[in-house]
Amino acid sequence: MVFSKFTGSRGKSGSNDANAEYIARIRKMMDDNDICYQSAELGKVDVGGGGTIAYILSLYGMEVIDCGVAVLNMHAPWEVTSKADIFETLKGYKVFLKEA
Fold first, then answer.
1. Residue 17: which pLDDT band, with cuts at 50, 70 and 90?
2. At what angle do helices 20-32 and 83-99 cross, to 10 degrees?
3. Whole-angstrom Cα distance, residue 71 to residue 69?
4. Distance separating alpha carbons of residues 92 and 90, to the nearest angstrom
5. How many other β-carbons are positioned within 10 Å of the β-carbon of residue 32?
6. Label partner for 90 (CA 20 to 30 A): which of 2, 4, 7, 36?
7. Percentage of the chain with pLDDT > 70?
């Protein structure tokens, strides 16, 4: 499972940034349930390209963090992922929905 703490562009106006306490709660959930996870970055700031809707949800005061399956070459003709990554992400989502 991959977590991306900060996403967006244009500084604070079009971005979100998960706070340390929220990340600590999520890490504890994953650690307590023996779920493998890693952190990632979305890319260069203000260069353009991918994005998510997390910043919109954060505008309403929600605590958000982007997470999902690790994918190499996302949206390219030859995407690569691992069965193990998919399985750990499934387990992570189940734990999050149960404990959050």
1. confident
2. 110
3. 6
4. 5
5. 10
6. 7
7. 83
Q: Which two tokens stand for residue 60?
A: 């309403």
Reported confidence tier of residue 32, pLDDT bands at 50, 70, 90: very high
Contact 18, 65 (CB under 8 A): yes
Contact criterion met (CB below 8 Å) for 40 and 3: yes
What global pTM score does this model have?
0.82
Q: Give me the phi and psi of 4, to 5 degrees please.
A: -120, 110
17 phi, psi to nearest 5 deg: -145, 115
> What are the tens digits of pLDDT across the range 51-88?
678 878 888 989 999 899 999 888 889 999 999 999 99
8 by Cβ neighbours in 10 Å (0-12 / 13-18 / 19+) ranks as buried
pLDDT tops 80 at residue 44:
no
Rounded Cα distance between 81 and 74, Å, is 9
